[in-house]
Protein 1
Amino acid sequence: MVTVKDKRKKILVIRFSAMGDVAMTVPVVFSLAKQYPEVEFTILSRKFFEPFYAPNPQIRFIGIDFKSEEYKGFLGIFRLFKRLRAEKFDMVADLHHVLRTIILSWLFKLSGTPVRHLNKGRKARKRLTRKHHKKLRLQPSVTQRYAKVFARLGYPVHFDFKSIFDWYKLKPDEKGSVTGIKDVKWLGVAPFAKHKGKIYPVDKMEEVVAYFAERPDVKVFLFGAGKEEKAILERWEAKYIDAISMVGKLDLSGELDVINRLDVMLAMDSANMHLASIVDTPVVSVWGATHPIAGFYGWHQSSENAIQITDLPCRPCSIYGNKDCYRGDYACFAGITSQMIIDKLRQFLE
């Protein structure tokens, strides 16, 4: 006997990394799941990112560890395909479109499964970042690019997503075992990014942290990862009474809970901007070599809260902030004072 559930269309959604890019799939797939209850959406990603989707019972999640021997190399991709083929997906949305997902998509196509992939707009992005004769045209946001993939599969999306905490029934740290009870304003500070071109000078960022951590009506939560970032944030934690480093203290679900309860997050063009965006927390973002015009701005964030030097002809010089400053002085950050950041944050904390 064929049940109603068996008749549901099954769409596989692939996006492996990076954290911010995976977070930007959330508004799209949550909206789709609500709009098309007759469709089963399955996310294929790194296991670490499961908390993004765990609260939504309408979405399945398959977590993969590519460091394991099982999924290494071409044979590993083929093993993964065999596992996925058994699920009998009707369609595949490749929201990554890198070598690993291209091979996986090719295998699906050979088996007769329709596949659509992400158009990254590389040519337009090159025109944005070239040294001379830039074409400063607003690019579609990443969420819009993701949405186009589903539209080509026959599922246009109407965005109505606000926060993943609309689905959570119990917050991971609601008793405040790490953070303490919220009795003052909460400021999150995420001062790091993967590449130098997206990191505001640490000494100037400390001036911002010091200003708010020394106020009795504000508690500052510091976000980062890795040994170097941990060392810096723990030094600030020891130096300022009302500053708390969150590095290594909570898992991703717990960090999302804390970010959800912030009054504002201060972040670079980085993953933390996107984590705050998917829990509906306002973000004051600081931009250097990169630029919101490239389409990587946080979901539903106000453009008024992006701090940047807009009259530098060299900006943006990079999409990801991974190129050396050809001027050698990072004027894009040098022109942003700590007081400019403080003044913007005070709009949320007073």
Protein 2
Amino acid sequence: MPIGWEKFSAAPLLDRWRALCASDEMLRSRLPGAVGRFAVMQPGFAITIELSDTSVGLSLTSEAETRFSATGAIWDEFLKMHPARHHHHLYALRMRVPGFSAEGDELTWAQHTHLLRRVFDLARWSLTGTSMPAPASLRPRLGTATPCTTAQGRYVTLNAKGRDFVVYGESAGRSRPILGLHTAGSDSRQFHRLMANPRLAEAGYAVTAFDLPGHGRSAPAAEPGAWALDTDLYAELILDFVDAWGFDEKPILLGASMSGEICLEMALRAPERFAAIIACEASEHVAGRRTPWADHPRVNAAIFTPEWIEGLMAPQSPAECAAEVWWHYSQGGCGTFPGDILFYSGGWDARDRIHRIDTRKCPLTLLTGEYDYSCTAEHSAATAVKIPGARFQRMDGIGHFPFAENPDLFLDYLLPALQNQTG
């Protein structure tokens, strides 16, 4: 039985894939300006994808400037509707799956990554055997919207590292406070669906979140492209926000990705300021997550950055939620995401001091998504082992943005963690 891309050696299946590409409205609207050839290769077989202004060409050759190579078994998993962890996206494959390689023109890949993702989605769809056109997203649909209609916001002035910053914050409800910290390059809108979820209110909790300087609705803190986040600035902003907002009681601190890492810093630096800390997608150090293409003159950052992010989400996460994460990152502002990554995968390194966290002063739980290939569950588990009293749990079916990409499933993990920590 053919495996991997060899399945498309059958003419009817290859023709079906070609027809889907030719009729796809998303490709038709986004192809103008495209020019590039990409080969997917396995031992004894290859397919070249040629992108042009008006069409997607598929041929049984390996003549391409950019080549993606793996075994047939790896590609077999990649082509499933819901691939296994780290097999769901090219960037995940390259970072975490031995036996996969990407060679050739990296710039052209960065310029066309959104088009390739759609072409691969159409390949997956062609394998389902249905005659229906491919939906806009292969992710499951929520079916109903969950807008946050109760959030109330205001601006506060913070002081950090000797200067003032005007930032926007908002909260929904007056129950036991959770202070949510958004991820790199995004903003506090990531918490809207969590704020609106009745399960959180019924459990007696309410979320407050704020936009870092130059993020979302907060005033810019630097000239475009000059933002550079570091540990001291980040920590001081959080602590001053706690003072400026005026919580009725100590908040529970919640973050993911770079904000999960600063949660660990808060556990080191100021545990007495928080009732508990939930650090998601966090470890003592994350390497290899810097990219030149998020701030490159020949790459559209409003497309590349959210596509770089897209692969960090689980394929099971609802289409509406994933689309919001993508859109927030597309709106991130010139140099904002790269400036945050200076902290996330550069400045942040607590390998020589993570063991000093005293969980007797503030309970600490680490939660990490199964599909996260940046800070893997194994990374977080290894960090938790070094912290006496810390708890760790892997979140199955979730990726790198738990409270934004799948808030209802995230609550299945968050609510027990809150109960264990705070009673």
Protein 3
Amino acid sequence: MNNSTTIHISTNTLLPVMEAFYTIQGEGFHQGKAAYFIRLGGCDVGCTWCDVKDSWDASQHPQIKVADIVAEAARYPGRLAIITGGEPLMHDLGPLCDELHQHGFMINIETSGAYPLSGALDWVCLSPKKFKAPLTEIYEKADELKIIVYNKSDFQWAEDFAAKVHPDCKLYLQPEWSKADQMLPQIIEYVKAYPQWQISLQVHKFMNIP
């Protein structure tokens, strides 16, 4: 038996689920839509400001059958599924995507891009992080580029990524929640000067919902 570590830290029928819930998407292009979130455990990107650090250790979360994950999602009327984490692409998402599609879901993923894409994804939100660079292959697949702005230097960092994605990719600047009071005024002025960008806010936090 090969005991070497691979990036696929789950089997193709089981996934470590930190939480799953039906709510309103609060960020980016699909903001305001009813959505079922599937938050998978496992992440080695290591963002210091991450607000879901409990997701990092996949072993701390129950392994759930793909069929059971989707059966729970299908109980709700919305048919937008958002796979997030952690870093969801540490797992093979093929079986999950296939099952979700069979139940009529549109599938979005929120990823740092640090691992290869897997599964038939309908929308890719690339949110690169400084701690682990995205793979080159993901730039042409990204439908949405969401840069978390933590300090002033992040504007140039955002432009570096904007130059790599395809021309139709939606561009968003989003203040890191704990720095929103400081960074949002700067983001507003930046978007006014460079209107190819849009502002993304975590409106679910204003609404006090998951």
